[in-house]
Design goal:
The protein is mainly α. 80% of the residues lie in helices and 0% in strands.
């Protein structure tokens, strides 16, 4: 069976795998963004806090994904979606934490002082002045994390995680059979196309959520 014929005959199953892959990526990025934003906001004013936050999240990113998936299973998360979502959430932290800190530190102090001078409190300045101005940098970090997670999510298949990675691993297990190349190629191509699709959404989201006055 040729690859185009395989795609046509398995169209529904491929779409379901892509949907599952997208689902775990979205869940992981939402969770990672919430945690990373909190870490960035809590530590950006402290040099020591910044060093610790970036050091810990950077160390997590150096852990081989196969090892992390295995450890999460051993530590009681079992097989399936849970260990994959936890691993992807952890891997998503560094770029978002780093860009949150960078973005907040890059806000012009004069603007912050002016806001303070008209009576804005600490949290008012953060949410009404600093975060909106830092947002283009922050969302770039989220975008980078998402692209990283889209690829790493494929390896979740080793712990029975959902998504397109299962096709790739199934193809590897069937090396030598006529369908092996079709399976691996379908999974790989699906991940690439999903990454392009998500990246396009981020371009639109960045434009829609960035205040007009600070757009490039």
């Amino acid at each position: 069976m040729s690859f185009p014929e395989y795609l046509v005959s398995n169209y529904d199953d491929l779409l379901l795998s892509a949907r599952d892959h997208l689902f775990i990526v979205v869940i992981s990025i939402v969770l990672g963004t919430l945690v990373a934003l909190a870490l960035g906001i809590l530590t950006y004013r402290s040099a020591r806090g910044r060093t610790i936050a970036l050091g810990v999240t950077g160390t997590i990113l150096t852990i081989p994904s196969l090892a992390l998936y295995t450890l999460l299973v051993v530590f009681g998360l079992g097989l399936g979606t849970k260990p994959v979502v936890v691993a992807l959430t952890l891997y998503s932290l560094l770029p978002i934490v780093r860009n949150t800190i960078t973005g907040l530190l890059g806000v012009d102090p004069a603007i912050v002082e002016s806001a303070q001078g008209i009576g804005m409190g600490r949290w008012q300045r953060l949410f009404r002045i600093e975060l909106p101005l830092a947002w283009p940098v922050i969302i770039t970090g989220i975008r980078v994390s998402t692209m990283v997670v889209v690829g790493i999510a494929a390896l979740g298949a080793i712990v029975n995680g959902p998504g397109l990675g299962a096709l790739i691993f199934d193809g590897l297990r069937r090396i030598g059979s006529p369908v092996a190349v079709n399976l691996a190629l379908a999974g790989t191509l699906g991940i690439v196309l999903l990454g392009i699709f998500i990246d396009g959404l981020f371009i639109l989201l960045t434009r829609a959520t960035t205040p007009r006055g600070i757009r490039d």
